[in-house]
Design goal:
Layout: H1 13-66, E1 68-69, E2 83-88, E3 103-110, E4 126-133, E5 136-142, E6 153-159, E7 162-171, E8 174-176, E9 178-182, E10 192-199, E11 203-210
Antiparallel strand pairs: 1-3, 2-3, 2-9, 3-4, 4-5, 5-6, 7-8, 7-10, 10-11
């Protein structure tokens, strides 16, 4: 027989404490699961961002190297630059222009710049440099191959937190750390360009791209 409900009926203190404890455990587990899920999302997002940056470096380097042209260009003072293609692992020496704390690895002119409908008064050529500043790999583009004091430069940071950056070019069957190609000279484009570096959290990376000198 069921006991009649009286004014004294209800939960005991022990039952209330047990219920509170169970809810506290469930809440702690839920918070831990949510925190782990958010952490995993952050880790996945960071990994995807790194892969996107790596793909951008690979794509830009391949597109740039594949469309190199040996065209003489002029500096801001109107004088022809000595090299029409230059690569130097130790950094190219610039005699004019602003002094920058950077190491220029590659300098060249490329074609293939889009100009839909010929809306702008410019050619399809642009001047490109790859350089290291601090721990950043940077791509610098000059709007027009022949520079003036008003010619703007645009830079994008391709990668950050990189170390031990090395550049080689393939000449015949041997890799060389320096190549200067001058107009009318006997030396032409290398067959390939190789860029190596150590990326924080990713380890050693290497990109090898062909140039028009390596396409037969």
């Amino acid at each position: 027989m069921d006991r009649p409900v009286t004014a004294q009926s209800g939960f005991s203190l022990i039952e209330v404490l047990v219920s509170v404890f169970i809810f506290a455990v469930i809440g702690a587990i839920s918070v831990a699961l949510m925190s782990a899920s958010l952490t995993a999302q952050d880790v996945n997002r960071a990994a995807l961002d790194r892969m996107a940056a790596l793909d951008r470096v690979r794509t830009l380097l391949r597109e740039d190297a594949g469309q190199i042209v040996l065209r003489p260009v002029r500096d801001a003072d109107g004088y022809p630059e000595r090299e029409i293609f230059a690569a130097d692992n130790d950094g190219l020496v610039r005699t004019g222009g602003p002094v920058r704390n950077e190491r220029i690895l590659l300098s060249f002119t490329r074609r293939g710049r889009a100009n839909p409908g010929l809306l702008r008064e410019r050619s399809s050529l642009l001047h490109v440099e790859y350089l290291v500043r601090g721990e950043a790999l940077i791509r610098r583009v000059r709007a027009y191959p022949d520079a003036t004091d008003l010619t703007p430069d645009s830079e994008i940071v391709l990668l950050d937190a990189i170390r031990d950056v090395e550049l080689d070019v393939l000449l015949g069957a041997a890799w060389s750390r320096r190549l200067l190609v001058r107009a009318g000279g006997e030396v032409g484009l290398p067959s390939a360009i190789r860029l190596r570096y150590d990326w924080d959290g990713m380890g050693e990376m290497e990109h090898v791209v062909l140039t028009p000198g390596g396409v037969r």
